[in-house]
Amino acid sequence: MIKKAGIALLYIVIGFLIYLYGEPLIVWINEEGHNYVTITTIAATMFSLFPIIPYPVIGGIIGAAYGPLLGTIVIWIGSSAASIIMFLFVRYGYQDWGYKVLRKYKALEKVTILFEKMLFSQSF
Q: Would the pTM of this model clear 0.85, i.e. be above it?
């Protein structure tokens, strides 16, 4: 229970910070971000995790600051890292809760088992 509350609290705090400092961060990326690729990639990850500002806007600004190739790489790494982080939060913070929901609804449990069994057995 404490682990779930801690993850939820961390997510809320980071989201609130992005809400407070999102626009100045966008301005910084637009003006100075081209000198700090790593920090911009981390910022892109945070903006992807907490979509307070629409991510296509972030992508456009980063693309304008870095150019099409490097901008694409920064956005791709940021969105991929955000996906991995969200997966880890759900996997290790809320997996037991998810299993309880699946067990509660038998039809959903059957569909989940079917998807797990058939995931890699058919080619598209």
A: no
